[in-house]
């Protein structure tokens, strides 16, 4: 199995595959990590996904807040049960280091300085040509996943279309030292554009500069800091030319999505599948969730137990998530980055967010907590949704729903039905069966008041529940194949 790209998506996918014993090689163009951190955290759903693999504890600390925004308009994420804006203050470089450490501990091979040149899918495997430290090389794999960013070579060489909207403006992003800028964490609309400043550490500020009326440039190199400082001064009147730039880059409001997330034996995930305005910290987070959705399905195919059509559900489920991602980030850009002619819309939008139902809808969308997949017949309210975090009491002591998913296997969680373990014995090599009761509320059964049992996929989404969730055997066959 070959993955192209050692960013958060590629490394998360490598770890997911290794949990199921699949040999993985990750090819990364860069010889060393850049140390740059475009992202500074991840959404609430991404936090849950990382916790399900035991990765949150590897970060020094994880700070969350219910305070966030939608297009620069304050939004209280506390309107959701278990809701918050997500992790803050975690540099992307740290996230990548944690994921690489985890993936390599599990046995993934990360080969740096290896740039994809070409690929050939002959229907039975993929030949991958790349330029490595020792020159031209070729590897063959059963499948190839491109996690190589918005300019994905994998996507281009496979011929997958990347339709969407052209950029209309350019923004600068960077970290500067020595200025002690006034905090503008949610961004500040100013005449001519928008600026953001957020203190990091060691006298370092993260800045974003958006100046309207500046056509996007076709850049092959990062902008010079003098260009960034000049734009900041035009918008704020503050001179930051004497700051020490640690790094700067430019990005646009282009929004594009791959027409296919899978073509034959080549798949796409993360920025290779979708690019958009970085609003609400969703890019890294959706990429990580792409990887967790895909990893167990690919492993099922390679390990020989995948039911027919399982791998096709990756495109069906995640492309729909990508559509919503592009829609909400474009909407946020219109609210956040446009001129005074949009003020009436912003004011009405702020009024709408005072209504709980509207706030819950948008908070669920941006956080990823409302993602729902089509998983089969039934009317149980948990079907297709993520398994909410709960503390549980089992025969082995107190645990949590996240801890029970650490293995990357399926999970059948029940309240003590003596016959349920026998009914799923044929899937014991891929589904864990756990009897539990609530460790939080004596008046509630093992999970929720009106739930007797749930079947959960390795990515944490419920595919069967009782009462009202259909037939257990049918759900097992649909998602976990034929019994051994």
From TrEMBL:
One of its GO terms (molecular function) is FAD binding. The keyword Lyase does not apply. Gene3D superfamilies: 3.30.70.2450, 3.40.30.120, FAD/NAD(P)-binding domain. Residues 2-329 form the FAD-binding domain. It comes from the Bacteria. Its cofactor is FAD. Keywords: FAD, Flavoprotein. It holds the Pfam family Rng_hyd_C. This is Bifunctional hydroxylase/dehydrase.
